DNA sequence: AGCCATACGTCAGGAAAACGCAAACATGAC
DNA sequence: GTCATGTTTGCGTTTTCCTGACGTATGGCT
């Protein structure tokens, strides 16, 4: 039997707060006790360990080597305890807060909300639009729907939903379509394609996956977000590049074309949840998202042989 | 500021023990207190949460849904706290315990120990041979050297050292060498190659990476471990398959040949450490292993174009 | 059915831990 | 030197936690 002992937990919590805030007083305020109490706990922990965790220099303190190591090892654990407890206290009766980038929200999630409400009627969902730099802290979130490539942060619990596939799309009303129709994918290399600031590598990724020598040389108009990019493509302004599910509806309706198919990228559609015990609502949502994405991928044209 | 609260920690520790052991009395024994104390803590925690964590049925208890979720969310965190504390208490003065499979130990680590001692003289290293099913619990270990493909367990902190490359090797004394010399790799498909029980997929992986239609059809002699497999190859008994670094010395000395080069696999050479604060000894060891592996890979012939 | 062994719950009193308060101490700024 | 800031220390008090003994519920055994 593993007879491993835990350190004095309250002292450890005090240490974690002090190490994080770099101050006894600040930690004391956070824990609603006096600084004297904290100081005492620190001493206790250092005695239990047998060597100092901080180097004192009169009025300030700084983590020692041992202290740094302990802080690195414990802060994540405490975070997980906090998350887990908070998630449980909030309870499954509270709405499930799902974070997701604005573009995904507008172009994919919202059009499918009615289906979601029908398939998972008991799920109370609150949506929260995150900034596009897709590294949310997921602090207040119960989950986040993301497009991201591994490796993912260790403090996420990740459910892979589907591989990402991206491809060039354009409106049949686009003036250049007459010129491009019937051409192979490499014809795009000479096209002034549309691109987005939130994902500058998209064309390069697509080109390398498609086996083309490089991304389109001339860069056409740029847009701040994928959402605007797709609106521009729908308006016939040029050739955009987008993940298949985001344009599945437009392809089905004929508003957009994807003559060169879609190419897989290293990224994945994922549902990231905090590392608490598996929330049954998250599991249900993940399963639904997976089904929904699979359907969209199926409806999108398969990868075109370049 | 995130004003998130932690649950009563001592009560949570009691809960974790009870949930793990499925018994109040067993948990009480583990924590060196009476069952009454545990029972009280459980009640306290349930009151703080506002709903029961266990379903009582007279003389036994079982986790409720909420209890299961809390246990999933907290057990890992407590494990990390235990690990972190234990690692720090043991101290950097204690020897670094490195686990690794017997084959790796015998054929790669041990021959390089003298160089390791010269390059990292202050590192006290204890070696521990693990069973070949490469999923050690790394409970008592400070680290483990492994060949494994992602995804890795979430409770490991993984440092990738090098991609794995495997390839067919044989002794120049092997009777079939005359027949094979100069032939392309696909000639091996008709060869009765040697294989190992600890890695039955090796030939298949190699064949698919090399773009061959399938693994060698006829299976020659099998061996329980890679170590014996390589001894057999050295003895001229046939064609074995092995990771490049494990045969680097033999290739350099001419005891083995690798006429068809080595192919990358999804696996990696990794140093897995428990999720405590980064141990400086582990960092130093990882850096050294990385250098050493890079040198071995360089000395091995590059991937042969099949 | 009656009895015993097992396992959890509860309560009172006492031990131990943690706390608040206030004074002491250390350092850097002025 | 004096003040402002921030940590440590000593002591009396409050809070928490534990022990130990007893009560209750269940299942196996005769």
Number of structural domains of chain A:
3
Multimeric state of these chains?
A: homodimer
CATH architecture of the largest domain in chain A: 3-Layer(aba) Sandwich
Distance between the termini of chain A: 60 Å
CATH class of the largest domain in chain A: Alpha Beta
Shape of chain A: elongated
**CATH topology term of the largest domain in chain A:** D-Maltodextrin-Binding Protein, domain 2
Q: Which structural class matches the secondary elements of chain A?
A: alpha/beta
Strand content of chain A: 15-25%
**For this structure, what is the CATH homologous superfamily of the largest domain in chain A?**
Periplasmic binding protein-like II
Low-pLDDT runs of chain A:
none
The topology string of helices and strands of chain A comes to HHHEEHEHHEEEHEHEHEHEH
Please describe the biggest sheet of chain A, giving its number of strands, its sense, and whether it closes into a barrel. Answer: 6 strands, mixed
Radius of gyration of chain A (CA) equals 25 Å
Question: Which protein chains are joined by the largest interface, and how many residues does each one contribute?
Answer: A-B, 44 and 44 residues
**For the largest beta sheet of chain A, what order do the strands appear in spatially?**
4-3-5-10-6-9
- Count all strands of chain A and give the number: 10
Helix content of chain A: 40-55%
Kindly report the average pLDDT value of chain A.
87
Number of helical segments with 4 or more residues of chain A: 11
């Amino acid at each position: 039997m593993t007879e491993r002992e835990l350190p004095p937990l309250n002292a450890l919590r005090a240490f974690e707060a002090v190490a994080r805030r770099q101050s006894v007083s600040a930690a004391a305020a956070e824990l609603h006790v006096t600084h004297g109490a904290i100081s005492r706990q620190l001493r206790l922990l250092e005695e239990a360990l047998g060597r100092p965790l901080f180097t004192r220099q009169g009025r300030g303190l700084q983590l020692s080597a041992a202290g740094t190591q302990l802080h690195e090892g414990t802060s994540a654990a405490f975070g997980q305890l906090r998350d887990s407890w908070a998630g449980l206290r909030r309870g499954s009766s509270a709405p499930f807060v799902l974070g997701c980038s604005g573009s995904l929200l507008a172009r994919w999630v919202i059009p499918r909300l009615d289906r979601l409400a029908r398939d998972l009627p008991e799920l109370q969902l609150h949506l929260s639009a995150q900034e596009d730099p897709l590294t949310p802290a997921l602090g207040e979130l119960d989950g986040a729907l993301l497009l991201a490539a591994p490796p993912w942060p260790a403090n996420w619990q990740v459910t892979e939903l589907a591989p990402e596939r991206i491809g060039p799309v354009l409106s049949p009303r686009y003036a250049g379509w007459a010129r491009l129709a019937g051409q192979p994918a490499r014809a795009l290399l000479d096209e002034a394609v549309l691109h987005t600031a939130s994902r500058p590598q998209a064309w390069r990724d697509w080109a390398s996956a498609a086996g083309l020598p490089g991304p389109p040389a001339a860069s056409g108009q740029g847009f701040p977000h994928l959402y605007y990019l797709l609106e521009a493509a729908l308006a016939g302004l040029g050739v955009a590049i987008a993940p298949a599910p985001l344009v599945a509806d437009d392809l089905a309706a004929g508003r957009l074309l994807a003559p060169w198919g879609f190419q897989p990228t290293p990224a994945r559609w994922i549902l990231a949840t905090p590392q608490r015990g598996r929330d049954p609502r998250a599991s249900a949502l993940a399963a639904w998202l997976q089904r929904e994405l699979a359907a969209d991928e199926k409806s999108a044209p398969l990868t075109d042989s370049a």
